[in-house]
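During the second year of the project, the team shifted from modelling isolated chains to modelling whole assemblies. The rationale, set out in the original proposal, was that interfaces cannot be judged from single-chain predictions alone. As a representative example for this report, we include one of the complexes processed in the last quarter. Its constituent sequences, exactly as entered into the pipeline, are reproduced here:
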Amino acid sequence: MHIFFVPRNFLEAKNRSNMSDEEPLQNNSGQEQQETTQVWTNAFQQILTVVPGEDSTREGLVDTPRRAAKAMATFMQGYQQTAQEVVGDAIFQSDSNEMVLVRDIDVYSLCEHHMIPFFGKVHVAFLPRNGRVVGLSRVW
Amino acid sequence: VNIFAQRLQLQERLTTEIGKALQDCLEPLGVAVMMECRHMCMEMRGVQTTGASTRTQFRCGHFSSPRYWTEFESAVHGDKNSRMPPTATPQTLATTKSTVSCVDPKANDTIGELPSATSMDTSRVATEADNYRLYQSCATNEVEVMTKIIVDFMRGPSLGQKPGLSVLDIGAGNGRLIETIGSKRSIEAYRAFEENGSLSEELKQVVSKLGLNQESCVVLTKTFSEETSIQEAGGQADIVLLSHCLYYSSSKQSFVHHAIKFVAPGGMLFIFHRWNPGETLDSLSSALYDASVLHHMHVFDVLLNLKHLSKEERIRVSKYTNINLSHQCDSTTAMHGCLAIECFSDDTMTNTSISRKVSYEARRKNPHAIVTPGTLTGIQSCLRAAALGTLGSHQVCVVGGGHSANCYADNAIVIDMKRWDHVVVDSLTETVRVGGGATIGAITVECEKYGLVVPLGDRPSVGMGLVLQGGINHLMRWRGLACDNILRVEYVAPSGELQVASSAEELFRFRGAGPSFGVVHEITMKAYKLGEILAQTTDYLLVHHVDLSQVMLRYSEIATNLPDSLCLDGFLYWPSHEALAFATASFDTDGENGPSNIPGIADILPTDFYSSKIQDEPTWCKLSDLFDRELYMTERFHLRNAAVPGEVLPAKLRSLKRCLLFATLDGACGSGLSEIVRSAPTKWAYIHFLHGGGAAGAVEPSESAFGCRNWAFAAVITGRYPDGNQALEMATVCWLNKAVETVMPYAAGVYGADLGPTDYQLAQHAFGDNTRRLALLKRLHDPLNVLSSCCPLLTEERAANILNPSPYKGPRVVIIICGRRFAGKDWLAEAVQKSLARLLGKNGSSKVSIASLSDATKRMYAAENPGVDAARLIHDRQ
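Output from the structure prediction step:
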């Protein structure tokens, strides 16, 4: 059996970079993206105004709705992608049919009931048929 | 992962989506996903202890099987430190179901909405090894029974002779089996494959106590697969064990085939397998058709003791074994099968048995398995498997000499008795003990060494099936049919029991209908002192105008008046394509006075009946010499003689035979028989008249199943056609049926040995007045009609009824109302009838009737039957 160990720090680095608010959004037309971000920003603006005992205009919070909107857009960008697109042509022929296991993939998501994060590890394994394997980087 | 994580999610759905995406993109053989997450919505709100994690899984394809899943799990948790979330402890992993999703703990109905492909398991997953150990703790007698089977073979003829035994244990588990075997018999070398790390560690511990040296004891923590080479396994082994390791193999057949390669010549392969409900060993048994492999089957029940198990543990055992376990029962049984396969090196094979060929007609059938048992338990297992229906149909066929067209049957279990071919002559008591697979030739040759003969047939390759169904022979006028000389029969009854028949009552059914009542493995027969036989053959070429019925009559008259020591066979055949011939062959067992003691044979026909005559000098010969000297074996019967000039001779002839029994051959019977030969589709047809009567006719019909005794001639009507010529084959079949129809009215009976399981009509004539008695015996001894490939004893309807039982027509529920006299039983019965009829009346099919034995009933009976004393009927309770 082959077990592919994925360096953890590498994964974390990758995830961090994904979550960074400087990261430009992909797979979204500029127009649409801007509109969505604006709606999100407005919504967060409203939320901030009704937080009891908080001044939404203080320096630290001025840009918060925009930043939050951008972060949310990142958290939701899965909707713009399909597995087929991501995998693309990264399917390779291997001469082995042994189990391929990618262990300890960090996973961060938002729970649909509260929109609050849940996070952990996921381990994915598959048994190739006729040596068909996917490029490992495409799994996470 | 991120495509699906970067959405609003549920952990369960996320798990499934990842799994399904991989499945769609790669179409692999299996996908497994395991996710462990901490939920901030719970933790931050304080609903859940910090650090608790929820685990969800997805598995499909091969990962649905415990084997791959365990492999996956152990790979995932191989390095405990990497477990996430870092704060999680094993205790908190065992969270309750309420933490599965982030909804309110009380409203956990989301579980019900999960896609069925997701396997939710929030508790710590019990590993395969845990389940294995749990199962072991219940299966109390399993190791014991397995050990007994193996150790029995280790002491048996093939393994017992080896000085030190090497064992290859595939899927060895934790070594409880080898531990017990090792305590019973010493092992020289041991190698094991066990893929489960935890079990193999335990196995190493166990094996170290077996007292083997380091090099000869190897435990490999890997999977045995079809790619495993013999070098990897450290060479071949005398014993290869495949105990419960076939469940996860996609092709059991090729797995077993591969495993057989690891068996050293003369060694054995043992397969232990738990039979799941409805499962059969179909694919396995067909993997074992290899001629060099002989196998035994064992079916045994393993007792599962469930008393000490909790509800959750019962579920685990149930899942592990695939057996439905009720929560109430304290114990249950699981049916296990063992195939013990002996792998012979080629030279042992040729030593143990004569190579023999199974009849052409039989070979055209497609049996389910051909088993060559070497032990009685092997035969027993076959019969039990047939009774249970776990292998093929409920039918067992037995191959003795392989002559019968019915020694194979479609979808049946065929027991080839060729390993039971012993012949032991006791010259002191003048008896001979022969195995159920011995041939007439072997017995005759062996007996001749002691100057003895057994009245047996004239074809050396014929087996014991013929003896048990009659055994018409050249010595029958002198010493009776072969079956009349059976003294003792040891057999395996259709129920699987070992039984012996030695009294006249018990031997009744084996003297003529033996193959229907058991798989006979040993027969003791009476032998007689006899030096040589005086034999002479004479051919008369018949003149064209001769009335053949006159020839028959003449032959019949002369033969009937001969002394019992002399028998005169007749042949009606085509020596050339234009003329018929009648030949006689005389055999004199009491030829002390020389050739002159064969009276009148030269004068069998008046000179104007024949145009030429060839007469051999009488010669003294042993019974075994006759095998090749029978007329139809000689040049005179060569097919080139009967061929039209210029005709291309067929390379091979096939023959079809029917044997009818006649008291005389005069009149219409004689002319009918001679017409048969004239009307045959090919001129290779002939009739062989075997001269009976004498001792064979002196036996009371009620003494043996062979109930036709009042005959003097057995006429074997033989049609022959070129191999592969279907038109002539069909014509021959029709001709033979027509022939039997023509002369049947004159016949005294039919020889049952030639009949097959579907010859119901003719079978009525095979046993004389014994037909009914034998049918009753058959129903008593073989109620499932397991041994049904020979002459049928049951009527067609009854045989069909066993295959497809008609629905039960009697009452379903019987309510018994009892009480003292005048208690009102009849009244109550009527009341019950009324109310039940009202309740059941709705569906219309149920009927309630009263069967009363009350005084009123008795009075009515007495009134209807004059002469019955009503008072006594009521009052006399004795």
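Chain A touches chain B through 53 residues (CB under 8 Å). Residues 1-28 of chain A have pLDDT under 50 and may be disordered.
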